[in-house]
């Protein structure tokens, strides 16, 4: 009788539980906070190193908008990918697959936050930053999640652009425009994304194959993926030094970037030469540190008083 009643109203026990007991923590999980934290930090770095002045309150609002938009994109992504999330071990404990939040709740949550973040950025900061923010949400949700992710092994190569826009948004929040210098920050993340994510997909290949997602190792094989990871890493190395050319960063950043690049290339070579997938897992972990340190060093290099202090110590 209980099963018949569930069938009559068209509800599953998981749906009933989600609608009755969704908690704040479940909605926070929809925002993909770990992914969002790095996105927000790169957006802050773009804002920090941009030429010009911005009121601290407006700067805080801009960073908040980037954070909310990133989280909103994650929520909509989870709504659309709920079928494959339920299959993959890495994602099956997300709020929708485990029945903590209904798909409709996740979609509504993401759409409301998306609209809020773009409107607030437009009203409080400027239209250029708001337009870039809106395009970033569109690109991640429509271009990457809905179109590319399930249709081509180039999903990460093209779709990775969505994660590369935050420094440009932060820059535009200060300057109101897009410059070659801000594009150089975009290119660092854009070229970093394939080796970063392919390292993950190497040791999670079975998950992606089971879910039917055409990640590069599933479609092209591990050897081809490893070669491409090395190629992208080698292309990335000189790109990380372009901000020095544009005057966005100085020698502190430049010297550290060279060291980080040597480490990243070393990881890519080890992945290529070995069948031990633990090397791919190590490269994935290092790639997170690699990107964080690059953008942290951009801020350090441009922080007031840092250079005089260093020069005084050296002298």
Structural class: mainly alpha
Overall average residue pLDDT: 90
CATH architect. name of the largest domain? Orthogonal Bundle
Oligomer: single chain
Amino-to-carboxy terminus distance? 84 Å
Summarize the biggest pleated sheet: none
Task: Outline the low-pLDDT stretches.
Answer: 1-14
Q: What is the number of strand segments? A: 0
How many domains is the backbone divided into?
Answer: 2
CATH H-tier superfamily of the largest domain:
UbiA prenyltransferase
Rg, Cα atoms, Å: 21 Å
Q: Which range does the strand content fall in?
A: under 5%
Instruction: State the name of the first-level CATH class of the largest domain.
Output: Mainly Alpha
Protein architecture, described:
This protein is an all-alpha fold. It has two domains: 9-178, UbiA prenyltransferase (Tetracycline Repressor, domain 2, Orthogonal Bundle), CATH 1.10.357.140; 183-306, Four Helix Bundle (Hemerythrin (Met), subunit A), CATH 1.20.120. It contains 19 helices and no strands. Helix 4 (33-49) runs parallel beside helix 11 (166-175) and helix 7 runs antiparallel to helix 8. The protein is flat, with a radius of gyration of 21 Å. The chain crosses the membrane at residues 35-51, 57-80, 101-121, 127-148, 155-174, 180-200, 229-246, 252-272, 284-303.
Question: Which labels suit this protein?
Answer:
single chain, 315 residues, Tetracycline Repressor, domain 2, Four Helix Bundle (Hemerythrin (Met), subunit A), 2 domains, 19 helices, flat
